[in-house]
Amino acid sequence: LPRFAAKYGAERMNIMGEIVTAVNDYTRGIRVNRVYGTQSGALASYHGATQRFTNGIIKWVGSVALPASIAIALLQAVSTFAIAYSISYRLSPSAMASVFFFGLAVVSPVLKLGHGLDYVTAGKNAAKNIGKLLKQTPIGCGNVNVGSKTLPLQASKISVINDTTTI
């Protein structure tokens, strides 16, 4: 379904580009079009592009409406957490936490977007990020009793890396 939606999204963008081009050709070259009698060409291009856009939207809605409504119903917040709990209730607390964490990652885009299929892709990306987070090695810890003594804090040779910038 996401591939189907992406295909029609790309097609709609191409048609919208044709519509904008036809309008620009008509308005920018209005004098030239009238001198040579070619204004009907730009207008015909506009009408053809808008007709293809309308037909494409009708076809897309007819093809996607039922599967999208089922997907939206299944991925709502209540369903997601109920499914997550029913799957993970016998797991260890850390495994259950990761399942709920994933459920939250899937539900949050739905709450933000409110509709559409973009949350499926956002959920898949969130799952990858959560997987990377859970694969990181834990930070070691220890017991240090410093009491009430004040200790100085010193730092040297610190590097901060943010994407491609190193400070």
Automatic annotation (TrEMBL):
Q: Which UniProt keywords apply?
A: ATP-binding, Membrane, Nucleotide-binding, Transmembrane, Transmembrane helix
Q: Where in the cell is it found?
A: Cell membrane
Instruction: Give the membrane topology.
Output: Multi-pass membrane protein
Q: Which Gene3D superfamilies match?
A: ABC transporter type 1, transmembrane domain
Domain of life, per UniProt, equals Bacteria
Keyword Membrane on this protein? yes
Q: Which GO terms describe its cellular component?
A: plasma membrane
From the record, give the transmembrane residue ranges.
Answer: 60-85, 91-111
Enumerate the GO terms in the molecular function aspect: ABC-type transporter activity; ATP binding
Residues annotated as domain ABC transmembrane type-1: 1-122
* Name listed for the protein in its UniProt record: ABC transporter ATP-binding protein
Task: State the organism of origin.
Answer: Vibrio anguillarum (Listonella anguillarum)
